[in-house]
Design a protein that fits this description.
Layout: H1 5-18, H2 29-44, H3 51-69, H4 79-88, H5 104-127, H6 134-143, H7 152-162, H8 168-173, H9 180-207
Helix pairs in contact: 1-2, 1-9, 2-3, 3-5, 5-6, 5-9
Amino acid sequence: MANGEGECCLKEVLVTFQSCLNDQQEVLMDPYIAGWKGLVRFLNVLGTIFSFVSKDAVAKIQIMENYRSGDQKAEYLTLHSMVKYELASNLVDLKKPGDQPPSGCRTILRLHRALRWLQLFLEGLRTSSEDSSTSALCTEAYNASLANYHPWIIRKTALLSFYVLPARNTFLDYMNVGTPADAVAMLEEALPSIAKVYNITEALYAQHNLLDIP
């Protein structure tokens, strides 16, 4: 684990998710993607434990970067403009995956679900006691979020991998922001921004009946 890698990642997450919303409270795509890149680098600090999330996130990030650099990049400036454009253009397969490339709406939904897991896990770390089990906190967060969308084999692999997570304070040390108390303070500052982005995305997708895209 490279010294300082976690610090860079968590600072990037903090800064980018704080800058994800414009004046209209719409989620800006570029900071959202940048925030996820930071989250992936942080997950990779612990090696392969979270690879079941990070590998999929990398693929989804690439899809969204392609949309942001393509001919219709202006339509993907925000999550709100993306939803409006893709629905109006019939680019979203609402019943079952079709032959066309994955829509931005479907791709963001997968990142959105993973963000909920991370939000719950990090919030659990922030509010738990020093002797709390990191494995138990991660399992609880996973069962309340991503586990609902994963097939049995992935659930089993994920839950087994959580058993090798380090102790709570050691995990907080990997964030490289100082003492465990400093890491908790950083999470206290960062998590409200992540929660706000999550809640706005959740409301947008619920409004357009997009929360169950296959």
